[in-house]
Amino acid sequence: MTVDMTDPNYRSPISPGLSWYESSCGPRPQYPSLDGDSNCDVVVIGGGFCGLSAALELARNGTDVVLIDAHRFGDGASGRNGGQMGSGQRAEVGELEKAVGNSRAKALWDMAEDAKRELLDTAKREKFDTDYQPGQLTPMHRARFEAEAREEVDHLRTHYGYDAIEWLDREKMAAHLGSNHYFGGTRDTGTGHIHPLKYVIGLAKAAARAGARIFEDTPALSIKVEGKIVVTTSTGTITAQRGLVALNGHHNDLMRDVARHVMPIQSFIGSTVPLGDNSPVLPGGEAVDDSRFVVRYFRKTADNRLLFGGREAYGRSTPGDIERTIRRQIAEIYPDLAKVELTHAWGGNVAITMPRLPYVRELKPGLWTAGGFSGHGVMLSNHTGRLIARRFLGQSDQIKLLQELKIPAFPGGTLLRHPLKTLALTWYAMLDRI
Q1: pTM
Q2: Which H helix or E strand runs over 175?
Q3: pLDDT in tens, 111-121
Q4: What single-letter DSSP state applies at residue 51?
């Protein structure tokens, strides 16, 4: 089915904010709100990948943990993102080697490899489906980026022993994409993509089954460290020995110091009707993230829809605005899909840091925070939650690798940071077109 958005009588059928993930999962399990005061070993604020993974790890090891979320589990970025796992950290290995040295860069790469394995192993152990599909393509949108990308492939294969990545010339990339829009690029068979909301649902069920006390629709109003950690909500107070604040881009007034280092930006995604078995789009089923700074990312779902994400709108947007933006970007890559019907178009916040590396800190004795996964959170936020839990359990101190990263604050303070963000992203979007 096709649509003509130039028709003055056209009205978008898309429900505001509803993601295809929600429609494809059916009714989500619902958890109660906190009702009354509670004491526990560990309190976790935030029910996304990071918080739920930490709660599951703690509960499996006999720790009394209480987790609260201001909304439903999966309403944030963890349940609404592009589902791509990626390899390594968000920053490329060459950048990391210059920033932290070769040995630490290799340790951070190995940590990310562990994260990929643990993500899939957790789903297998806890017996929940993820719609996992292997493979990721990173095509170059400008020929001038090809040499650097080829060097990265050679470096990973030679110095990191990572043989799952290969260079594809323009002709081979076009065959994998089903489009000749791009130049050459990389193909990584050591990673893949998942249905993120199914993963959130599976984590929440597993955490509850392991004994974690988890609550939805319970916003934290304040956090105090008075020997113990005291979290106040509108319906009760939680007192704990340790705490994890896993809010990613949603710290706002709760933790202003963290918000200085972790900034939310909007990202928009649309999904098409099923393309049919004969569609030339992504015949191998890989996910795609291109070389733009304002990255375009897309993949096919288990039922053969094209799920396409991008970001070039910086203010408030209606579903029609999102639909027009996404449709234009799809048509640039797949002209035959210029009038394909979109069934869903939604947006959400992705949290970034200045160096595109996670912000992980012990803010006060026993109180930790983690966020700013910069578009690499599907595997890294899950793993970071587990690593902080293992620190609490006294099993591992590997989280120090992330804790010791230098993450400067964004310039501009609370008044100027958002205008400066808009200016910077507009600038980079312009550079992407050159």
Answers
A1: 0.93
A2: helix 170-177
A3: 999 999 999 99
A4: H
